Amino acid sequence: MIPPFSPLNPLTEALERLFVTQYDHAICYADTEGDTVLYEGPVTVRANGWVELPGDRLLSPNAVHRIDVDAEHTSP
């Protein structure tokens, strides 16, 4: 697991923005079968694997098995 970046270093903040991916509509699953939906809606996947949800909530990389993305509702 990659440790979180230090917010004190402007260089690491700039590099992190290069590896952050935002999706307008995604479904986060906790299992391989897709039975357990953790969240559905806009997400930001950070470089360290954490999934940021609206309202400053986070999903651990250990909790999310997969993320399905709706390409029609995702900005490039």
Explain how this protein is built.
With 76 residues, the protein is mainly β. It has one domain (10-73). The protein is 12% helix and 37% strand. The chain has 1 helix and 5 strands, in the order αβββββ. It has a 5-stranded antiparallel sheet with strand order 4-3-2-1-5, with no helix packed on it. The radius of gyration is 13 Å and the shape is elongated. The N and C termini lie far apart (27 Å).
The global form is: elongated
**Share of helix, binned:** 10-25%
Low-confidence stretches: none
Strand order of the largest sheet: 4-3-2-1-5
- Please state the average pLDDT score: 83
**Binned strand content:** 35-45%
Outline:
This protein is mainly beta and 76 residues long. The chain has one helix spanning 10-18, and strands at residues 21-29, 37-45, 51-53, 57-59, 66-69. Helix content is 12%, strand content 37%.
Annotation keywords:
76 residues; five-stranded antiparallel sheet; 5 strands
Q: What is this structure's SSE topology?
A:
Blueprint: H1 10-18, E1 21-29, E2 37-45, E3 51-53, E4 57-59, E5 66-69
